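Bump. Still looking for Prepilin-type N-terminal cleavage/methylation domain-containing protein structure tokens.
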Amino acid sequence: MKKSKRNGFTLIETLLALLICSVVSLLCVCLIQTSYKLFSITSIHQHQLAILQIRQICSLSNNINVSDGNLSMLYQRKNITISYKNNRLVQEDGYVIWMDDLDSAVFYKIDEDIYLEWEAYGKAYQAQIT
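Sorry for the wait, here they are.
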């Protein structure tokens, strides 16, 4: 009797390979979705952190003024100005970048309170500074 040659795969082997490919594909999709969420949230967290740091500087500063949408103050015996330039919120007494990828940003004063209003990623945000 001749032994038959085994050509091809059995149904169980094919189903097992299909199952493994499906699981790997599902894991890849989950990984891509999670990384997308992480990167989209990161920039908003950076903006919130920048607001907290600007508040801290303002609390330690003297002669805080708002003019032409810019924030000026005397901090550690230096005059500093925080303003919107080139899609960034920057501090000038050097060049410190507080926020990046902004569409607009403006400081304004209501009574004794100072606010920052900015637009980023198609949304408008507002935060009280002092």
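Residues 11-128 form one domain.

Edit: fixed formatting.
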